[in-house]
Amino acid sequence: MSVPARPRFGRARATAFTVLAFALCLTLSGATSSPALRSPALLIAGMRDIPSPPTGTPWRPAPIDANGLNMVASTDGQQFVLHTAAGPRTFLPGVDLGNTTPGHVPADVSISAAQYRAWFAAMTWLGIRVVRIYDIHPPAFYQQLAAYNQANPDRPLYVMQGVSLVGDAYIKKGNLYDAQVTDAFRRELKDAAQAVSGQLNRTTLPGRVGGEWTADITPWLAGWIIGSELDPAAATATDRKNADAKAVTGKYFRSASDATPTERWLANRMNDLAGYVAAEKVSQPIAFVNWATTDPLRHPEEPLRQEDQLQLDANHVRPTDEWPAGTFASYHAYPYYPDFLRYEPALQAQGDPYVSYLAALRKHHAGMPTMITEFGVPSSIGSAHNGPLERDQGDHSEVEATRMTAGLLRDMRAIGMAGGFVFEWADEWFRYTWNTVTHQVPNRRQLWHDPLTNEQGFGLLAMDAAGVTGEDSQTLVDADGGWPGRRVTARADESYLHLSIRLGDSPPGSLMIGFDSLAGLTGTPMAGSADRRPDAIFALNLVGHTGQAYVRKQLDPLQLDGDIPDSARGPAPDGWRPYELLVNRAQKVPIEMQNAGLLHYGDSTDSRALWHVDGDDLTIRVPWAMMAFADPSAHAVGVPKDGKLTTQRSTGVSVTLSASGTDQSLGQVTWDDWNWPVATERIKQGAEQFRDAALAVTND
């Protein structure tokens, strides 16, 4: 079953595509996913020539015995070794899997067994060999993974199990050693050890998945990554409050003599987990979460103090002989943040600062493997940070983002890293980022998709808005003599307001489209019009294929992001602001902006494209944020007031076309409030680039 693509854009249009067996398993099973997913079949979109599924050498586990413990994976110097029937595998291409679908937040249980089945097969088809999860998933994850691997013994999907800190109490208390924090984390570690071996039964609590875990996935358990990205201030406070914390001399892990209190606490928790795991007569490599913000290297050129405030070093947590699987260094590391990647001379000298940084991490950890367990480049219209070599945190098409991510995976293999796990498998609508979070109503963010928020675009799997209000379009104009438009239809979905405009005879060379979200506010007229100024405008050059989005000054969301001088803003007519995003605050470095309102022209081959002309037909899609909506699902328009977000309810969006001094009022586009979104799943364009890289780094 396939989902037909709409013309121009809206969903990616495949010039040729194949719906593979892994997609059909969802449709043919008769199973239904969560209500958020109306049509869960997966598409491989935008590929002209679909290669056959991988048929390389087998990855069937061939565990070894050490000290009476069974190991499917272990460490050897700087190598992470997965023991397979075809011999040792020393580089693992992986993916990070979250636990939400559109309409849900992480505390919900929303991924169905049918989705897990399809996703596991899709991951394997894309050359992914390990799926990393951050927490205990519902029993269906483990059941479906075991079933999938038993049905595909030579191409199994291995698991890197994570266990996150429980809540953020350690931040509030500034102390990891707090009994509440430690006890909660130890219980979660024990539960995770029981979950992977199919021996857990627990009740559901707020923020904690419950159920009965009966599937044993330890034959395919490649390792553990425990903890969370630690807050530098809270960990620094932990070190200060626990300076006299005892060294760790556990049976399985110990702390080095120069370990900090935070590192000793982590060593203790790794020792706890090893004890729970060893009871099952198995051993797997165990690491703790680290990220570039708290890496063990010093970065004096970093402009933000908090990004180099704390150093955590995996070298200071050491396995004993009783834990033969060993440990490794795990990093979340991206090519655009922190800023030391742009300013550190030693990293610039080699040409690619990011690759140089990874090489420096590997050199520091000379006695253990180093694995990058989060990396990637998002496909989104909005960006949140500028990076070296144009690998910014957003403002990339799907094809471009996947190409960059694939290149980074190849680079990791070339410099001797132990693996690379791309963040992430599926786009997650609940996610926010620092430069748009103040523009949105927080408790309903998961109900709509914002292409200006880069954090919602990291997935290899797109979650496309399917149109909660239905497929039917609303006709605004249908008049042969109409000008500039003779026929105009509109449709709203969870991502965009869509317009299809049949231009009138002798089409104009340029066109302004006004969007009035709050008709009750007073404003100044549009040029050549006696009516009030609209709230947002798309100014299009139909001949040169250029365009710019503007927002009325009173509704400019950048008022919510602090004091931004006019000198940092782009040009705009009086009373307007270009739609821009702040991508770097002025702290030791100049303020930086992204002109997110620079309207990309194109068709479905560019996922950022917002408009296209084909003869007399103009197709447009308008992100809700560009019309000042803070929550389109509840018709809430964001109105900055004294630096804070307030909202006013919209009755709909009135649309006006203006060209050559003529204004054409099209009436109002309306839609119903929604409390549940509808989405379809699609492998993103360019996925074959990642697949080729994943197969190349494993010689498959």
Automatic annotation (TrEMBL):
Residues 1-38 form the signal peptide. InterPro entries: GH (IPR017853). Keywords: Signal. It comes from the Bacteria. This is Uncharacterized protein. It comes from Paractinoplanes durhamensis.
